[in-house]
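Let's practice the habit of predicting before peeking. Look at the sequence and jot down your guess about where helices and strands might fall. Then scroll down.
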Amino acid sequence: MRMSTATELTAEHHAQLAELGLRTDHLDEAIWAGVDARASAPPLGPTNGAGLLDWIHRVGRLREVLVAEGWTRVDKWNAGLVQHPTKPVVLGTLQGNRHTGTPGAPLRSDYAKGPAIAAMMRGNDRDQFTLFDSLHAHEWKLWFLVTYPQQEGERLVVLREVAQPEPTPQGQVVDRWAHRITLPPLVFGPLPAPRDPHGPDGPDEVDVTVTPRR
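Done guessing? Here is the structure:
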């Protein structure tokens, strides 16, 4: 069950995202797709199964909604990115830490980055005062939709922001950022209990899909 946080967004949030050609509904669609997929992970599947399903569907849905508006799918080195139709902006997804979405807090990626992402970050800015002033036409600026899901009681809360990392060497976690657009968290209601195929209701009686509350 989803709960909207639209009223917590400010005009500044919308303006900063618009500068990148983004809206919050683009981001929310991707996050919701990931949470829906996470809920469908089998209880006895691999320990990283829920997170992997979340990432696959988050990437896929983000690209679906943006490609429909003229963006281009980018699979350079299988990095799962999408490129703005006119600006040198490339967007991917990244799992952050518990400081995701908190201004000034030490955000870092959950995993070290490989050669593909390290190469894509070479054209990024090195400080937060060069959001677009120093763009070079031949360089992409790599941004990420950074998310971090955490359970708070019965609710799943997804911390979120859109951030541009500074260039980071291969094999290191990303912990330096040129620009961060921190956003209020997206709060979901209780997730359905995992389906028990041997339970009394049988497999056809249980719906494990997360349904949005309108």
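How did you do? The longest helix spans residues 49-67.
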